[in-house]
């Protein structure tokens, strides 16, 4: 990392923007005291700075149009995050000498209004609500942004912002005790709270701040062997955990026991893992996540500055390639959640991010990657990719709940724009729902998924547990609850055993061999394709009452998007007179829930015992 006073422009066309970073990074003794001592560096990536400056000016214009709504949301609903981010964004262009808004008096009113609203709506304990009452972790999101804004304003030292600075300082000082004494909900919240406290502690030290950071860090970083964190979520890795650990590495010395290598190493390992779950179009595989994004699209731009920071720090050419590619694509303008203009504040705060990237190295594009800690296999052959997933939590914990991996998709593939978003198997077996594998393991030249589920019929209670009044405990038999004292009853079981062998074919496609046995039940394979293509095949029949859903009765079908096509089949008959059914299981239907994926769906039906081979190419 480099000193905040040492930036120089390297090209004439972007000298103004580059000099702006240099000016901001070098101002203010208080801001300089916030930064760790770093070796000097005189070069910077002027194109990168110019890109961010233009993006930030555009973003600031949008914020000026909409910040009033953020203040209203804060006052009416207690939601502080949008207001704090707006203040941070406006601060970045106000202090940046190359910005069209540099020291523009038109920003002073909005900055003051945002700061005043944040101060007025802060509770006496220093916290905000943000959807959870007096929430330390939700407050920490806002404090992280306000820490950066305060550091930039203090470093800029412009007299016109003295009152805004004083207000933000008051908010941060007030928040410290609440963060140091409060609890959290999820694993990533620990590191977010630590990051917020670390910067407050660096500027206004207090033993309770260091003590709470040490307590959380003493629990150990929750990183799995494959590089993912325990939540296995690309969203929370990119937006919370990685940024928090990088902030801790910079601002918290653990009273002389600093472990920079360990914290940077965690982020490095996570970014390396992300290389193998990133699709050619920038989407990040999330089928293995334990959070809300396990059924949603996520995109690699959220990792942008993390790849850039570790590329520069380590001289990592692959990380540099990701960072350069994202900038070339116009990060966040077409996909991603954080607009690129919001990132200027981070670069002004960490000017080492503006150093030139190292020479780029080729990214992995021909591999089989097995992350056993997540039960995920990723295969890429140039523009063709596939995911094989057998790592849900359901076989172990027997529950559907927030915080668990429950997505029943076990195979996905894509060829360019033709995307099979989901392949699932739904047997109608005691309303237990979809097949969810108990793992994924190598089997010869393929990958094997397997699971066995069972349901019991209960025998009469032994004499010693019988009651004349019939008042038996309300108990759970694994599928439902009843006042039957299930644990004390003998049982006879019905079982369903499923194995799927997934093999890459010589022609670049895939063969999936299914073996479903031990019970005779109807079942349906459900393929769900991303919308935007054309489905063709003589053996396709519409499924009554289900929009965009078809049954492949015979032969093969194809899904085509432009020049890209996935051919699949064969069909396996109609499977009876009734329309085919995809049963999500009683855990969903009891709550009127649904597991129907969005897209163009094709069902292939059958009845166990069944052996069937599907071809996808």
Description:
The chain has a nine-stranded mixed beta sheet with strand order 3-4-5-6-7-14-20-17-16, with no helix packed on it. An eight-stranded antiparallel beta sheet has the order 8-9-12-13-21-19-18-15, with no helix packed on it. Strands 1-2 form a two-stranded antiparallel ribbon. Strand 10 and strand 11 form a beta hairpin. Helix 8 runs parallel beside helix 10 (234-251). It has helices at 15-26, 29-34, 46-77, 81-95, 108-120, 136-156, 162-181, 187-203, 207-217, 234-251, 260-275, 304-314, 317-328, 344-349, 394-397, 586-589, and strands at 283-284, 298-299, 366-371, 376-381, 384-389, 411-415, 418-427, 440-443, 446-458, 474-476, 481-483, 491-504, 510-517, 522-529, 534-536, 540-542, 549-552, 557-561, 564-569, 600-607, 610-616. With 617 residues, it is α+β, with helices and mostly antiparallel strands. The longest helix is centred in the first third of the chain and has 32 residues, at 46-77. Mean pLDDT is 90; it is low at 1-13, 26-33 and 37-41. 35% of the residues lie in helices and 20% in strands. It is built from 16 helices and 21 strands.
């Amino acid at each position: 990392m480099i000193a905040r006073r040492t930036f120089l422009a390297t090209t004439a066309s972007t000298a103004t923007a580059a000099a702006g970073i240099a000016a901001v990074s070098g101002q203010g003794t208080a801001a300089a005291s916030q930064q760790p001592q770093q070796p000097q560096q005189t070069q910077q990536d002027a194109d990168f700075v110019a890109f961010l400056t233009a993006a930030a000016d555009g973003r600031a214009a949008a914020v000026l149009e909409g910040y009033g709504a953020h203040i209203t949301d804060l006052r009416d609903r207690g939601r502080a995050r949008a207001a704090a981010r707006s203040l941070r964004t406006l601060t970045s262009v106000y202090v940046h000498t190359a910005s069209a808004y540099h020291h523009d008096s038109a920003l002073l009113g909005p900055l003051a209004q945002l700061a005043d609203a944040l101060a007025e709506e802060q509770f006496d304990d220093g916290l905000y609500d943000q959807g959870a009452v007096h929430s330390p972790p939700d407050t920490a999101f806002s404090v992280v942004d306000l820490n950066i804004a305060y550091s930039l304003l203090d470093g800029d030292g412009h007299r016109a912002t003295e009152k805004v600075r004083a207000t933000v300082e008051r908010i941060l000082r007030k928040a410290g005790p609440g963060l140091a004494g409060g609890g959290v909900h999820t694993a990533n919240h620990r590191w977010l709270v630590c990051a917020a406290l670390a910067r407050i502690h660096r500027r206004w030290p207090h033993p309770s701040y260091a003590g709470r950071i040490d307590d959380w860090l003493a629990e150990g970083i929750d990183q799995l062997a494959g590089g993912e964190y325990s939540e296995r979520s690309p969203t929370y890795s990119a937006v919370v955990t990685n940024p928090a650990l990088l902030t801790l590495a910079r601002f918290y010395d653990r009273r002389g026991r600093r472990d920079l290598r360990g914290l940077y190493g965690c982020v490095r390992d996570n970014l390396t893992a992300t290389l193998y779950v990133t699709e050619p179009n920038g989407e990040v595989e999330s089928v293995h996540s334990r959070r809300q994004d396990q059924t949603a699209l996520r995109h690699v731009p959220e990792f942008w500055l993390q790849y850039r920071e570790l590329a520069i720090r380590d001289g990592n050419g692959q990380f540099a390639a990701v960072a350069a590619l994202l900038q070339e694509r116009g990060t966040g303008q077409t996909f991603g959640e954080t607009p690129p203009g919001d990132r200027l504040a981070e670069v002004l705060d960490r000017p080492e991010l503006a150093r030139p990237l190292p020479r780029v190295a080729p990214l992995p594009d021909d591999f089989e990657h097995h992350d056993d800690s997540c039960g995920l296999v990723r295969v890429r052959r140039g523009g063709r990719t596939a995911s094989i997933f057998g790592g849900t939590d359901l076989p172990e914990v027997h529950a559907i709940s927030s915080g668990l991996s429950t997505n029943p998709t076990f195979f996905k593939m894509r060829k360019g724009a033709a995307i099979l978003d989901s392949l699932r198997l739904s047997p109608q077996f005691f309303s237990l729902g979809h097949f969810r594998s108990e793992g994924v393991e190598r089997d010869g030249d393929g990958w094997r998924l397997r699971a066995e589920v069972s349901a019991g019929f209960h025998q009469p209670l032994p004499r010693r547990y019988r009651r004349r009044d019939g008042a038996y405990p309300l108990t759970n038999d694994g599928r439902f609850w009843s006042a039957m004292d299930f644990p004390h009853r003998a049982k006879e079981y019905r079982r369903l055993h499923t194995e799927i062998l997934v093999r890459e074919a010589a022609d670049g496609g895939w063969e999936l061999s299914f073996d479903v046995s031990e019970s005779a039940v109807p079942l349906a394979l459900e393929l769900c394709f991303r919308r935007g293509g054309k489905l063709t095949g003589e053996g396709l029949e519409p499924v009554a009452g289900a929009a965009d859903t078809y049954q492949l009765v015979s032969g093969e079908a194809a899904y085509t998007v432009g020049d890209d096509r996935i051919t699949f089949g064969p069909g396996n008959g109609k499977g009876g007179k009734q329309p085919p059914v995809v049963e999500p299981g009683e855990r969903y239907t009891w709550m009127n829930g649904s597991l129907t994926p969005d897209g163009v769906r094709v069902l292939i039906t059958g009845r166990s015992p069944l052996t069937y081979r599907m071809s996808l190419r």
